[in-house]
Amino acid sequence: MARISLLFLSIFFISSIHAQIFKAKEGGTTITFSSKAPMEEIEGVNKSAVIVLNTVTNDIQIRISVQNFKFKNALMEDQFNENYLETEKYPNAVFQGTINEKVDYSKDGETKVTVTGKMEIHGVTKDQTYEGILKKSSNEVTITSNFKVKLNDFNIKIPSLYVKNISEIVEVEIKTVLDLFQKK
């Protein structure tokens, strides 16, 4: 009887750990970056990030296909991909981190959080900490964050000819809705 109880508890524990993975809904993520310079405002939008949150460990992983940023005109998109982010050489931006605050995922509610981890853009990896809001509602987790990225930190060079068109610091906004992941 004790073995059966132990087996049942082990299965329950393993399945409850498995049930604590949340994954971005298809089309449920919007990442926007904007560069506000004296001569021009540039905005790129990406809706194809892969985001996974493990609520047992508070680990979060984000992978963004950089070439999926869309702009108001094709020339901006080409310059972004070819001249600045070199997406053939560096196709993805990746963040791997941990939510620092204790979040009670068993209850619905909103929590201000900070996430610390490693951001890789343009082949350069930097330790970063970002602030955001995590909202748990039923079987969904919504995460929003606004932060700034200094292009020079990631070896993204702006030619002096375009210094009035492109800001050295871009603003990034992330909004994602994650669903409880169920293996099929």
What does this structure look like?
The chain is an alpha+beta fold and 184 residues long. It has helices spanning 2-18, 74-84, and strands at 21-36, 41-46, 50-54, 59-65, 92-99, 109-121, 124-137, 140-150, 169-180.
What's the helix and strand layout?
Blueprint: H1 2-18, E1 21-36, E2 41-46, E3 50-54, E4 59-65, H2 74-84, E5 92-99, E6 109-121, E7 124-137, E8 140-150, E9 169-180
Antiparallel strand pairs: 1-2, 1-3, 1-9, 3-4, 4-5, 5-6, 6-7, 7-8, 8-9
Strand content: over 45%
Q: Could you name the ranges where pLDDT drops below 50 across 5 or more consecutive residues? A: 1-19
Mean pLDDT: 88
Straight-line distance between termini:
32 Å
Largest sheet report: 8 strands, antiparallel, barrel
Figure out the total of helices: 2
* Inertia-based shape: elongated
Helix and strand element order: HEEEEHEEEEE
Structure described in brief:
The protein is of the alpha+beta class. Helices cover 15% and strands 50% of the residues.
What brief labels describe this structure?
50% strand, 184 residues, 2 helices, eight-stranded antiparallel barrel, disordered N terminus, alpha+beta, 9 strands
